Amino acid sequence: GQQEQAVVSTQSTGRIAAHAKLREDSNFRVFLEYAKDLKVRSKNKKEIIGGFFKSMTKNVDEALLSGQKDKDEFFIERRTFLEDYHNRIKETTKKSEFLSASTNGLSVDYMQVAGCLALLSTRDPSLQRFMAQSAITFESLQKLQKRTSTDEDLKLTDLFKYYQRETQAAKSLLYRRGRALADKEIAEGKLEQAQKKFKDIPTAEAYLEDCKIRFESISDMAKTELDTFKNRRLETYRKHLVDMSELQIRHSQSIISELTKGLELLKDL
Questions:
Q1: Can you tell me the distance from the alpha carbon of 80 to that of 95, in angstroms, rounded to the nearest whole number?
Q2: Could you give the angle at the alpha carbon of 160 between the alpha carbons of 74 and 63, nearest 5°?
């Protein structure tokens, strides 16, 4: 009953905690941190535990498959590349978000400066026109800066986030292929055992054939998907970076133009 399930759950948790790699998993840490909450919130207990063990099962499987010997150089190279690329794209996404936030922060500063100048224009009649015109200039700069921030989000941050998800999907595809390869190797072992015992040989042969078909099928699909991923990624990056460069030049020209116009108007006051 419930007591037996609790014992099994405790044993499973203990085995995970003893594993050098899996005990550092973020999902496992969250599970331990909220263990007390799970006892109180019985309504969500099954959902939380179910999601945790499902995630951990995959992580355990991935850990076991990490030492798998793959003879296909294509997949060896792609797996190594994706691991490194995924880490780099995550870091790049963070930097892009910081860049966009900084640009947006500058637009907020411009608006605050414009507000202060507009307020000063009502306090000192002798500087009214000068302050009012300066406020208008900074309001225009704020709009341009906000537009620059939006373009950085659309052309850079969103692009990096998209390929962060795409890279994770590609890694998952390689995981499924690795799982199929492991199944095929297990089936080969079962056939060897069946042949030694002269028992259930047709069943073992049929199972091996099925595993081979699934492995070859997912391998062919993975090669096609990974090649497409590579070509599409290069084309998309090139397009977005060119577009972003053109937008930056356009925004810079608009800012210079607005500043020049503002200075000319101030000179005429």
A1: 23
A2: 50
Residue type, 49: I
Tokens at 151, concatenated: 């373009």
**CB neighbour list of residue 225: distance below 8 Å, 6 or more residues apart:** 170, 173
pTM over 0.70: no
- If pLDDT is split at 50, 70 and 90, which confidence band does 59 have? low
d(CA 258, CA 264) in angstroms, rounded, equals: 10
DSSP state letter for 76: H
CA–CA separation, 248 and 267 (whole Å)? 29
Mean of pLDDT values over 174-181: 92
Residue 63, pLDDT score: 52
**Residue 148 burial by CB count (10 A; 0-12/13-18/19+): exposed, middle or buried?**
buried
How far is 93 from 113, CA to CA, in rounded Å? 30
